[in-house]
């Protein structure tokens, strides 16, 4: 018996809110990953295929200021190491300074 596991692509949505009292209501749309009390935003983790529809639904909620997609999945996770090595395009190595 073969078990096939399908991995769903996930997407982070940044939800800016007026008040954090209603954060529990956002749980029905996805997993609440992080809540910032000072800046009043919530990181919501949802399936990538459902993200556009959920963004429309969430933006219509009364306590929501704005909704945007997170660009975290577009970042290179190894960029910091490449900068340290000086191999990242446009990275300044400091070896060719003319003082």
How would you describe this structure to a colleague?
This protein is of the alpha+beta class. It has one domain: Alpha-Beta Plaits (2-Layer Sandwich), CATH 3.30.70. It has two helices and four strands, in the order E-E-E-H-E-H. The chain has helices spanning 51-59, 79-85, and strands at 10-17, 31-36, 41-47, 64-69. The chain has a four-stranded antiparallel beta sheet, with helices on one face. Strand 2 and strand 3 form a beta hairpin. It is flat. The mean pLDDT is 85.
- At the first level of CATH, the class is Alpha Beta
Portion of residues in beta strands equals: 25-35%
How would you describe the oligomerization state of the chains in this entry? single chain
Number of domains: 1
Structural class: alpha+beta
CATH superfamily placement: Peptidase S8 propeptide/proteinase inhibitor I9
Give the overall silhouette: flat
Q: What is the number of helices?
A: 2
Task: Summarize the entry for a quick read.
With 99 residues, this protein is of the alpha+beta class. The protein contains 2 helices and 4 strands; from the N terminus they run E-E-E-H-E-H. InterPro entries: DUF2129.
């Amino acid at each position: 018996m073969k078990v096939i596991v399908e991995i769903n692509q996930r997407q982070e949505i940044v939800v800016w809110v007026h008040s954090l009292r209603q954060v529990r209501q956002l749980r029905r749309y996805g997993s609440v990953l992080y809540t910032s009390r000072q800046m009043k935003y919530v990181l919501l983790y949802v399936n990538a295929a459902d993200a556009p529809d959920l963004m429309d639904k969430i933006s219509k909620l009364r306590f929501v200021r704005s909704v945007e997609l997170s660009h975290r999945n577009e970042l290179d996770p190894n960029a910091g190491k490449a900068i340290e090595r000086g191999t990242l395009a446009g990275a300044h190595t400091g070896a060719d300074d003319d003082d």
